[in-house]
Amino acid sequence: MVDKELKVGAATSSSPSVTPVSLVTVDHVRAALTSDKGAAAQLTAWEVVDFTKKGDNYACLVTSVEVKYEIDGKSSEVVYVIKINSGKTFGGENMFDLFFEKECKFFLDIAPQINSILREIGHTEINVPKCFHASLEKGKEVIFLEDLRARGYKMADRKQGLDEAHTILVLRELARLHAASLLLQNKTPDDDLGEKYPYLKIGMAYLMKNYNSMFKVMKDNVIFGKTIIKKVGGYERVAAWIDMIIPNLVDIFEQLECGEPKVVCHGDCWNNNLLFRYSETSRPEEVMLLDMQLTDHSVPAADLNYLLYTSMAGDVRKPNIEAFLGSYYTTFKDIMEAGGQTVPFTQAQLLKDFRDRNLAGSLFAIMFVPVMLSETEGAVDSSKDDEEDLEETLRKTREKSLEMLDTNPLGHAHHRSLLMPVTLTTPLALHHSHQGAAFRIAPASRMADKEPKIGAATSSSPSVTPESLVTENHVRTALMSDKGAAAQLTAWKVVDFTKKGDNYACLVTSVEVKYEIDGKSSEVVYVVKLNSGKTIGGDSLIHIVFEKESSFFLDIAPQINSVLKEIGHTEINVPKCFHASLEEGKEVIFLEDLRARGYKMADRRRGLDKAHTTLVLRELARLHAASLLLQNKTPYKAIGEKYSHLKIGIFYFIKNYKAMLNVMKDSVAFSQTIIKTVEGYERVNAWMDTIIPKLVDIFEQLEYGEPKVVCHGDCWINNLLFRYSKTGHPEDVMLLDLQLTNYSAPAADLNYLLYTSMSGDVRKPNIEVFMGSYYTTFKDIMEAGGQTVPFTQAQLLKDFREKNLIGSMFAILVRLKQRTAFSPSPHQPLCSQPPKQLPTRRHKAPYSPTQINSRMADKEPKVGAATSSSPSVTPKSLVTENHVRAALMSDKGAAAQLTAWKVVDFTKKGDNYTCLVTSVEVKYEIDGKSSEVVYVVKINSGKTFGGENMFDLFFEKECKFFLDIAPQINSALREIGHTEINVPKCFHISLEKGKEVIFLEDLRARGYKMADRKQGLDEAHTTLVLRELARLHAASLLLQNKTPDKALGEKYPVLKIGIDYFVNNHDGLLNMIRESATVVQTIMKNVGGYEKVTAWIDTIIPRIADIFSEQLQRGEPKVVCHGDCWINNLLFRYSETGHPEDVMLLDLQLINYSAPAADLNYLLYTSMTGDVRKPNIEAFLGSYYTAFKDIMEAGGQTIPFTEAQLLKDFKDMNLAGLNIRHGVCTACAF
């Protein structure tokens, strides 16, 4: 408040015509104050204080009133934000009166009813400013709203656009608004809200049809968007598209009024009409929707398109569309179900509705270009008096926007790249990738501001670099080969795009080239492969493989392509080669940039599926068959003799280069190292012992068999690029890295591909189908060349199987590196020496959880019969009829009569080391009606670990959780109106010594299943888990606070036994973690580049026990922690579109009493890649903190730590998290 106070009734403003001084009266202020503070509040002074800047708030005036008042003699102050109808017209039409009336009526009519609905179902009110007074007195219309600044709300960075975290908050709030309005509508289904409140029928399409001025603004903005697009350059097709749609603007916006269900939409929900409140770490926690002047009755997709196409960059929107709509749908569903109703559309239908209205979204985006460009200093003043001035204002705004393209930072190249994805949303934006490395070249891409002169090159390679190898002559030669002799080189530069660890055998980079033909400038990019000059074990293998690839492109590929063209087929699918030089020490190959044609890698962690594999097999068949046609042209001379480099394959290298043989031996030995940590693979381990001495003989099989064809030699997932359809289906494949091409039987390539590039679940059931696809294509090529296939499909399958041992060797060599945290090249040794051994022996790693895939057998046993294949302690000996009856009665009630049951194992060998997990299928009757149910049963295995009975203790801890702790936590949650904790329901427990069992619900029946363990958790999965952990932790704290004098850890001693206890008291577990750290260290040493990390691991191995003791016991508050929360102990339920909606926490056998950061480190370091964890740490902890805070506040308590303290606690325990990761990741290597 300014020092000099005004008496009641005084007001100040600088507005020229309709001003706060003329419209804000003492009666307005009194009415707002009474509504806000009650009748006892006495107004003592007030003044109008403008806080908006020049150019803001064209449709109405926005100001504030600072008010002083007294209640019972005590002085206080409050500020209100005031919206005032400006009285302006536009094009002679009073649209702004209509806007103002719509907003007033929203606050007077709609918001109170929506809030009433939300309160009825136990939810908070809609997030819009509180309205304390509204007057629609003609010519003096005002709205008094709360000042959200006082609650810490502020705008997001409008130039940057919304990121994922901001967007999800907005979508959830829109979902609450939409769903609550639908519940309101469903209360009176015969009385349409649009009829009851006619102003809701006035949306964008109505305004454009009925107000010429609105149509003109929209049309002019679209035309102006086209002007900007032309000025930026490179978007000629978009500009032409705009010309085509301008006559159809009204029809396009009418799409927004079609469809069902109709809900109350915001109508103008974009970045400028949103305020956010942030955590101490600047993470957005809550959003407020502002400016409800365009609210209308439309389909949800109208608001969704408006928001997602106006308020963020394409880089945020495009990859997250399904995740965004999933968040919206989940919240919408929550509101509807809380109101006892179902969602009247599926998530898939929502996505379709959204996409059906993308054209309107694109237009919204284009219309906002001038707004975005003009939001900077020197904005045009929009507070003019008459409509001629307003027309002039719009004209000047557009002129200013064009000027800013060149003078404002938004005009620079970097900002253009940000601007265009926000605004231009047709499919013309180009995004390319190569070998997993992101690389974008915009349609109008520019070289750096200062271009290198011809011949300049840049690179970060440490020794042999593109700068020393790529010359101007190379670039000129490649350009001429590609574009013809008329192409004149003007500038070029080397741009690296691969990451550390890629391309061990050679350097791979790119060259961006500028050139002219007949005075017209153009650009092109080439991928360049360079001989790295490296050796393996002192041998110059790399030079040989580089020469082989060069010779393939120079000699073999042209002849194979000639054969294919002769028979009317397309050329072989390999990159075009524009130049190759084998000058000693300066070897280079210039290839086409396949990114420009839309090719990219498949998901390497997931492996190839059936569709991808079939494409590759067909292309291999074309290569093989065409080479056979080529061979048959000169039958007297084998291609292997004519091109001697084809005789050099894997077998040649293993036989003649000791370094290559050592790579293979060390790979097998390292596989054994990991296999020894997993029980159940003793025979595999023994088999490996027998084959190591025979490796040369095994690979010699590659030399046998007819016919001989040109084989790729290194055909696996990393050496393939795919082009996809719009729906994500693979349509075409390119074979890369032809550096191991050789002359062998087809089965060599087939084994290599099928054993290195997919899971057994894809390969095994499809072998014959895969061979059939290959054979059919091979046959097509041969017959097109007038020849027959020299083998049958049955012979092909036989040849393939005879070489399966080699396939297994390839799998060990190649696939092992896919499953480790670090990926060396397939030509780099995985181990230079066997992993060093600690004095203690290796132990079995923590068990894997259940995988649920069983069905009721056709023939049922009588009551009491049980079957199992467990070797010693078995379900047959431990699951009794009494157990089954007790579980059934607990689940279905005393009326349930057991009629039959049987034990059905559904876990696979190697799962569930610490206990047995099986299922019991039960038939029962209630009142003569037959039914069935399945229970999952956990049984104490009685096993020991390193001679110690840890597993008895694990089992007891889990039993006590279900018997004692879970019921109390659930009671605490129900008391505050929340759902119970997400763990399986427990129906029966017996702790009889030696016969311990737990009967749990079968979560398969509710649609729960595991996430993809090879891929790890993504952001959506992780956020769900963190929220559930927060609910568990916070509810246990509420429980603790009920009896503050006695810690839960004292009341339930099993909680004091956590992983730190086991590490310090059981040598078996300590040794396993130590050896796991050693395995990781071995991998890193052989990959190279991690010397500091490996040295650091040496320092922590002796301190592991101390690290767990020091870190996991520190911190407050103590809460009930899961203790073993990682991907294998989680099940998820998914939406129809595959988005995770809910999570269940399993395997509570390590529950303990620790600080929250213990569980957070365990989860975040064991269950996802660093690419997911690192950039999202603050967002993840923000989600956790918000959920924890919600529970505490619902229980009437405050959270005893800040978000910043949580982040600090998490980081303080990171060392324990890393050590847990070592143990878990090594256990998962196979």
From TrEMBL:
All residue ranges annotated as the CHK kinase-like domain in the record: 143-338, 589-784, 998-1194
Gene3D superfamilies according to UniProt: 3.90.1200.10
Region entry Disordered, spans: 824-876
Sections of the chain in a coiled coil: 373-400
Family matches, as Pfam families: EcKL
Keyword Coiled coil: yes
Keyword Lipid metabolism tagged: no
Compositional bias annotation for Polar residues: 824-835, 866-876
Cross-referenced InterPro entries: CHK_kinase-like, EcKL, Kinase-like_dom_sf
Protein name listed in UniProt: CHK kinase-like domain-containing protein
Keywords tagged on the record: Coiled coil
